[in-house]
């Protein structure tokens, strides 16, 4: 594998988008449980505040640049050109792989209604794949039964949408117990496949303004977005060695 690009202590993959898809597809057919993190500046900033979370990212099998801020930071800090590899963009390729191979896929997260609708929609789009899941609202006491349900379903792909940080920690904690070849934290992707949240139109994505579209649609996100200028300032200071 190509060497990683270090962004503020987080080792980002330098694989192209197509190389990333090929690698994950290969992992889905294997037996070794692997964790993939699609990391944006918010995740990097969380890692700066949480040493345990930083260690989690450093031990993940693959960390992809999810966010234009990471792509720019790679150019500024490492003079490296990396592809933006987002969770929502890689999922159709992984679902198609599951469809062709008739593999199970488990979705953990979102509301009960969104989870159900996402499974219904995905089952129509990829009729040969097997989809199952449950919502992300559960107590610690329910976790053993959830783990058992996932294990008994034997998915090749586990998608966890519990929110930034929480989903990555859940995967890391139970990765070895679940024996799922590929586990990915997917944030709000389950809601998008459910149709309850709309992804930014293509023109916004091409302009690298998907973050702004989400902010306009969900103004409550503004507190989370405050880390973006902080991230940019840290990158610039590091580049200038201030």
From TrEMBL:
<comment type="pathway">
    <text>Cell wall biogenesis; teichoic acid biosynthesis.</text>
</comment>
<dbReference type="InterPro" id="IPR004629">
    <property type="entry name" value="WecG_TagA_CpsF"/>
</dbReference>
<keyword id="KW-0777">Teichoic acid biosynthesis</keyword>
<dbReference type="InterPro" id="IPR034714">
    <property type="entry name" value="TagA_TarA"/>
</dbReference>
<keyword id="KW-0808">Transferase</keyword>
<dbReference type="GO" id="GO:0019350">
    <property type="term" value="P:teichoic acid biosynthetic process"/>
</dbReference>
<keyword id="KW-0961">Cell wall biogenesis/degradation</keyword>
<comment type="function">
    <text>Catalyzes the conversion of GlcNAc-PP-undecaprenol into ManNAc-GlcNAc-PP-undecaprenol, the first committed lipid intermediate in the de novo synthesis of teichoic acid.</text>
</comment>
<keyword id="KW-0328">Glycosyltransferase</keyword>
<dbReference type="GO" id="GO:0047244">
    <property type="term" value="F:N-acetylglucosaminyldiphosphoundecaprenol N-acetyl-beta-D-mannosaminyltransferase activity"/>
</dbReference>
<dbReference type="Pfam" id="PF03808">
    <property type="entry name" value="Glyco_tran_WecG"/>
</dbReference>
<comment type="similarity">
    <text>Belongs to the glycosyltransferase 26 family. TagA/TarA subfamily.</text>
</comment>
<dbReference type="GO" id="GO:0071555">
    <property type="term" value="P:cell wall organization"/>
</dbReference>
<protein>
    <recommendedName>
        <fullName>N-acetylglucosaminyldiphosphoundecaprenol N-acetyl-beta-D-mannosaminyltransferase</fullName>
        <ecNumber>2.4.1.187</ecNumber>
    </recommendedName>
</protein>
